[in-house]
Amino acid sequence: MNLTINSSTEKADIFNQIASELSALGFTVSTQDQTRPWGGFFVLEESDAAKFAARYFPQLEMSEIQITNKLSPKILVVAPNKRLSWQYHFRRAEIWKVIAGTTVGVKISDTDEESDEVKTLESGSFIQMDKGERHRLIGLDGWGVVAEIWQHTDPEKPSDEEDIVRLQDDFGR
Q1: Region of residue 132 (left: phi > 0; alpha: psi -120 to 50; beta: else)
Q2: Full-prediction pTM beyond 0.85?
Q3: Can you tell me which residues the record assigns to a coiled coil (predicted)?
Q4: Which of 8, 80, 84, 132 is the most exposed place for a label (fewest CB within 10 A)?
């Protein structure tokens, strides 16, 4: 993404830039949420999933990405020095790629135990997390923008925003 952001850029300005760029790229935003204490997100129409994957994950074949018939593309916006909850999901795996901003941090584990080790992802880096794998996205010194694809693992009951088991959360959720 061609965004002009730094650690002092206002959240609303970042969201406006992302919305403009997504529109220019032909993506349809179905939901936008700027109210999250860690930043926020854009949910794109499911019909944009193949185009989204081709743009942000060109190194992956659709056969590698698609577990069931449903994929959900999103853009995550993580604020400087903020952390999403230490969490996992019952009905989805996830793929993330840093597409703008500075680096972001990621913690992952197969157990509820959160390690002190933070893996740094530079712009262009991506990571895949399996269903049930514990993870946390962390904003480091500046804003981070991450392309995310939800890989729904249960064709009968696709994942949604309620499919989050929070093990620790800085915001008391």
Answers
A1: left
A2: yes
A3: none
A4: 8
